[in-house]
What does this fold into?
Amino acid sequence: MKIIKTTFVIVALLFATNLLAQDNKANNIDNSNIALEGYSPVSYLDLELAQRGNKNFKSVHNKITYYFTSAEQKKSFDKNPTKYLPKFGGFCAFGVYAGAKFRVDPNKFIVKNGGYYLYLNNVELDAKQLWLAENNHNKLEGVANKNWKKLSKTHN
It folds into this structure.
């Protein structure tokens, strides 16, 4: 019970300090439509590594550009792009659980249940640690999935 109360206090802090960070897009992309700040989705899922991709190895899926570290990674993505898409459009999984969309630190992620989840990390908050502290991934993901149905519909 103490963890839950602490979590909600931290979530309130998250809302208060990062309200302006909310994005009204369904995918966490920059103005050039590059996903994951240029990190490779294949590296996250297949290697459990955060690796910057190379602009020489890129694919466009649903008007969003993804970079990869090699031609082999690009080929894997092109065979099954939906397999490699980040959970919750690449927004912070804990933020989506809390009902908001926040940008992430591409080096803060976990791989679980065939997908990868990205997290906000700044001087005030490490959302990945909050997620892990709950010690109930399925519960958090269930709530986040319900919230994502609403949040993903708010876009430009």
